From TrEMBL:
Taxonomic placement: Eukaryota, Metazoa, Chordata, Craniata, Vertebrata
Designated name of the protein: glycerol kinase
Pfam families: FGGY_C, FGGY_N
GO molecular function, one term: glycerol kinase activity
Domain of life according to the entry: Eukaryota
Family assignment from sequence similarity: Belongs to the FGGY kinase family.
UniProtKB keywords: ATP-binding, Kinase, Nucleotide-binding, Transferase
EC number: 2.7.1.30
Residue ranges of domain Carbohydrate kinase FGGY N-terminal in the record: 2-54
Gene3D superfamilies: 3.30.420.40
EC category: transferase
Length: 310
């Protein structure tokens, strides 16, 4: 590409590992000193890769899901670069040292997670605050057959379908706002299940538990629903800011800094809250099958055909 566009290669920065000293903080010439003068800059991780490190998913087959505006599920595939046949992206997870090997991951992205709660609050006025949705959904205890596909701008992994649009289906005269709130939380869990199923197919090793982080994990009902729909335990660390933790771990473990050891034997277990499946797998599969049916109905909504006059 550089030859084609006639661009000098030295315009690009050098490729470096995720954990090494790149330089030192320097105070500007007009000031005499600063609190950070001479402090090494020694860690460089992308948002989701940092959360993977912060969750200590260093083993092949370990996975974490970050619940924010969207959802981002990463599965460590070790030192082998796995190319997905089920709609996932292959990415570099980390390289924790100049002489250390590169580790890869499979990634699946959900466009709308926490954003669906904001939509119910700001666009429909169904909830007054993001915290209220847990209480409303708990009061319903079920979606009463209602399914919500929040494909507001198409569907991401594993479908990559830009023509899809959001739908709420399965409504009856008994459906109320609490059922819709429950269906919105279920939608986050179903979308995660789709990605996890794709990862299991690509890796060939079923995941035995899912580690979670991000703002939405404070919703205990959501975490329980997630465990029920995946049929595996969901594990939430007591310290949810794992992205910041992962960046700190990479920086602290760099050669020349050495205040953090990333050897598995030196890592202390993190206090976690576990959510175990509480429904039988048959019910989970039934609900998931209905979700897939709703997804199919959301597709092909947008077309490129011009509207006819009148």
């Amino acid at each position: 590409l550089f030859r084609f566009f006639n661009i000098p290669m030295d315009m690009l920065p050098k490729v470096r590992s995720s954990s090494e000293i790149y330089g030192l903080m320097k105070i500007c010439s007009s000031l005499k000193s600063g609190a950070l003068t001479g402090v090494p800059i020694s860690g460089c991780l992308g948002d989701q890769s940092a959360a993977l490190v912060g969750q200590m998913c260093f083993q092949d087959g370990q996975a974490k899901n970050t619940y924010g505006t969207g959802c981002f599920l990463l599965c460590n595939t070790g030192q082998k670069c796995v190319f997905s046949e089920h709609g996932l992206l292959t990415t570099i997870a980390y390289k924790l040292g100049r002489d250390k090997p590169v580790f890869y991951a499979l990634e699946g992205s959900v466009a709308i997670a926490g954003a669906v709660v904001r939509w119910l609050r700001d666009n429909l006025g169904i909830v007054k605050s993001s915290q209220e949705i847990e209480k409303m959904a708990a009061e319903a205890g079920t979606s009463y057959g209602c399914y919500f596909v929040p494909a507001f701008s198409g569907l991401y992994a594993p479908y990559w379908e830009p023509s899809a649009r959001g739908i709420i289906c399965g409504l009856t005269q008994f459906t109320n706002k609490n059922h819709i709130a429950f269906a919105a939380l279920e939608a986050v869990c179903f979308q995660t299940r789709e990605i996890l199923d794709a990862i299991n197919k690509d890796c060939g090793i079923p995941l035995h538990q899912l580690q979670v982080d991000g703002g939405m994990t404070s919703n205990k009902l959501l975490m329980q629903l997630q465990s029920d729909i995946l049929c595996i335990p969901v594990v939430k660390p007591s310290m949810p800011e794992t992205t910041g933790l992962g960046a700190a771990m990479a920086a602290g473990a760099a050669e020349g800094v050495g205040i953090w050891s990333l050897n598995p034997g030196d890592l202390t277990p993190v206090t976690c809250e576990r959510f175990q499946p509480q429904i039988n797998p048959e019910e989970s599969e039934f609900r998931f099958a209905r979700w897939k049916k709703a997804v199919m109905k959301s597709m092909g909504w947008e077309t490129t055909e011009a509207p006819s006059n009148g």
